[in-house]
From TrEMBL:
Residues 123-223 form the Acyl-CoA oxidase/dehydrogenase middle domain. Its cofactor is FAD. This is Acyl-CoA dehydrogenase. One of its GO terms (molecular function) is flavin adenine dinucleotide binding.
Length: 385
């Protein structure tokens, strides 16, 4: 399918990433899968490769490229190989936009150089037990000390991707009670040092999919957060979260499209090699029709994902457009991956085959970053319904 979204620089980067995956990830991926996380030093390798610094300003050690297209290439190449880069996606997709949008010059000087090298990994802690998609219902609090030098953080978070290895976590907490006319008021964001006294990582959660990505519960008991680590203005955190949700949802949409494309590739290779009743599975008309239908859906998802990418890079991706892209691409991926697994027969149920892992990894796409039902609500609201 003809595409215009990538240029020669992106394709050169693609070759670099593909070679890196073949050398550094594929040979050890089974070990990561068994351990339930990528090793911490792998992130230093990504930093050395320049992956974390692509969108970081040059003065802080990055490449200063204001584009998500290199991230898009990584989504496609990791899916193509049937692997992930552990929990590192949240570092760039979730952590960096908040730093770039909210950090002062002083904060950027402290944070961005180590962000780019992978020496300091970031995560975002928004979800709490019992609140789910209702961010405004959070109970975690941050109270300013009497001398005004620090906040005292108390509460708990769950489903925090990258939470085990994180060195700094953007924690959303209440600094004031909600107003009667605005329950979203009173939330603030803090860049919390995970070495702080009273900060603890609870269970590393045992997930259905994304087994190489560390996801954890976090707890805060009287954690002292210096006022210098407040991100943006106090009580305006909900608005900041809303600003970056579009890019997060684009990332999920693009990743889902890439997974669907990879599933078709895995299924095509499998049915061409596998023989049944003296013929390859690929020679049966049903196989051809199934893969053709899947390819048509992947083509449509690619167009939607690419359009959202161009809008994101242009600073024009609206909340409704991001929701639409996420809804469509994740639903397509769900259908396509399921049909491609079916073409594998019993082997599709075995974790040694990439399609089985892809099936499990894909399921969360319709839940995190806002459920499909939430996406429908956003789209409906934009339609005036």
């Amino acid at each position: 399918m003809r595409r215009t979204v990538f240029n020669e620089d992106h394709e050169a980067f693609r070759e670099t990433i593909r070679a890196f995956i073949a050398a550094e990830v594929v040979p050890v991926y089974d070990e990561w899968f068994a351990a339930g996380q990528a090793p911490r030093d792998f992130y230093l390798k990504l930093g050395e490769l320049g992956v974390f610094g692509i969108e970081v300003d040059e003065e802080y050690g990055g490449a200063g490229i204001d584009s998500h297209k290199y991230e898009a290439v990584i989504y496609e190449e990791t899916a193509r190989a049937g692997v992930t880069f552990g929990g590192s996606g949240v570092h760039t997709l979730l952590g960096l936009p908040y730093i770039k949008m909210l950090a002062t010059d002083e904060q950027k000087k402290r944070w961005l150089p180590k962000f780019a090298t992978g020496e300091e990994m970031w995560a975002l802690a928004m979800t709490e037990p019992g609140t789910g998609s209702d961010v405004a219902g959070m109970k975690t609090t941050a109270k300013l000390s009497e001398d005004g030098t620090h906040y005292v953080l108390n509460g708990a978070k769950t489903f925090i991707t990258g939470g085990v290895h994180a060195d700094r976590v953007i924690v959303c907490a209440r600094t004031a009670a909600p107003r009667e006319d605005d329950r979203r008021f009173g939330i603030s964001l803090f860049a919390v040092d995970t070495k702080s006294e009273g900060y603890s990582v609870g269970r590393k959660l045992d997930k259905l999919g994304l087994r190489t990505s560390d996801t954890a519960e976090l707890a805060f008991v009287d954690v002292k957060v210096p006022v210098e680590d407040l991100m943006g203005e106090e009580n305006k955190g909900f608005g900041y979260l809303g600003t970056n949700l579009a890019s997060e949802r684009w990332g999920i949409a693009f990743g889902a499209y890439a997974q669907a494309a990879a599933a078709v590739r895995f299924a095509k290779e499998y049915v061409q090699d596998r023989t049944v009743f003296g013929k390859t599975v690929a020679s049966f008309q049903n196989t051809k029709f199934e893969l053709a239908a899947c390819q048509a859906e992947v083509d449509a998802a690619q167009a939607v994902a690419d359009r959202a990418l161009e809008a994101l890079d242009a600073g024009e991706l609206t909340a409704a457009e991001a929701a639409s892209a996420k809804l469509f691409c994740t639903e397509v991926a769900h259908r396509v991956i399921d049909r491609c697994l079916q073409l594998h027969g019993g082997y599709g149920f075995m974790n040694e085959y990439p399609i089985a892992r892809l099936y499990a990894d894909n399921r969360v796409n319709r839940i995190y970053g806002g459920t499909s039902e939430v996406m429908k609500s956003i789209i409906a609201k934009s339609m005036g319904l």
